[in-house]
Amino acid sequence: MAKYLITYKCGHEVEKQLFGKISERENYISWAEGQLCPACQRKIYHDKALADASSNGYPELEGSEKQVAWAIDLRYTFVQNIENEISEKRDRINRFSENEEEKNARLSKFEKLLPEFYEVMNNLLTNKTNAKFWIDNREYIEPGKYEWEVSLSPVELLRKFKKEMEQKNLG
What angle, rounded to 10 degrees, do the helices at 38-56 and 65-96 form? Predict the structure, then answer.
């Protein structure tokens, strides 16, 4: 165990404590020197999230400056994860269908569900303007990162919000 000063590709220096064999540490340092530092990576991701929010017309979020910055990133991650899940579902249908007829039937059924799915998603993105909502529901957005509930996914957040919408319409 030792502390190393790593100079990243962006020029920032970060002191990092590394464990393991010396050769493994040296490999890590060599790899890290070819990467952007974590702060620069977060900045690039946040800039993408801001651009996405602007281009899609998402409303401003309410909260402290730090809460809003984090929530914007979470909201962007949520949208990316939903799009990935939809793409993966299409790929699974294409890969695992027995024949062309079954594949077309399953794809057709899936595509018919998407407009309602997107309506709920857009309603969520439009109406949940408090940064606290996105932060409190981060385990749905990045389940592998927080792992509070193994079965959660971004789709579960949409289901939860859909129930909330239905209860408001009934009440």
Answer: 80
